[in-house]
Design a protein that fits this description.
alpha/beta, Rossmann fold, 2 domains, 7-stranded parallel β-sheet, 16 strands, 19% strand, binds 2-phosphoglycolic acid, binds magnesium ion
Length: 300
Amino acid sequence: MNGKISKSLSVENAKELLNSVDAFLFDCDGVIWKGEKLIDGVPETLDLLRSHGKKLVFVTNNSTKSRKQYAKKFHSLGIPVNEDEIFSSSFAAAMYLNVNDFPREKKVYVIGEEGILEELEQAGFTALGGPADGKKNIELKSDSLFEHDKNVGAVIVGLDQYINFYKLQYGTLCIRENPGCLFIATNRDAVGHLTDLQEWPGAGCMVAAICGTTQKEPITVGKPSTFLMDFLLQKYNITTSRMCMVGDRLDTDILFGQNAGCRTLLVFSGVTNESNYEDLSKEVKPEYYTNSIADMLKYI
Ligand SMILES: O=C(O)COP(=O)(O)O
Ligand SMILES: [Mg+2]
């Protein structure tokens, strides 16, 4: 909807949107929850949409969990969601290697958390790094040489609250010294609502660190890349023009929706709000915007 004027969601257009869409694609952080806390009215809204026969799908850039771990989180918050309704950037990273025939005898170094490791393992890949390297310290001594595995053929970088100098050196050496080593970013979100009260550094800052050391740009598999859309389309026989992407970030969620040909709805319950919207929406404009998905309860 670039170039067009964005509209505030209202009784009239919410009904039109509902009638012309078969699936709602929801971003998670800032739309469904903030950290461990559900956003008000979300379970009721999802129930309402399901009662109208809509398919609900969850597309998250947060790579710290696998699809299985996300399904558990949804259940613990009282929302019944199946693993196959979740499309996370951790899954995207493993699938990128899969569809590109990454050799199973090669290894993958992970700057990130458990979610990426679980998805790699499920896809049959051997991973190194991740949380296990979170407590490793470096001592910069004149005679010490940092050894890395020459068999690492890909480095995946995602959100990592335990990022350290050891992981930065490991990932950097693999990309710089192992011939053909891939540099994959799960996503490049600047910040995210990892807790309910404030925003925290997003995967974009971990990715930027490795861009800085290697002077290379990664392959990004999460939003706004439409890589995950192929998997979604394999599962749901719905044309993208009858899907609506709902998110709190313009440069990932809304752009992903637009890149894929979906309708788009921006919500002000996460990183974009009424005060920064004007500034942030210069390049990417959603079709609709509203305070929270719970507004649909009023409009539908
Ligand atoms: O927290 C992040 O990195 C982004 O996650 P989201 O795509 O669910 O908003
Ligand atoms: Mg979000």
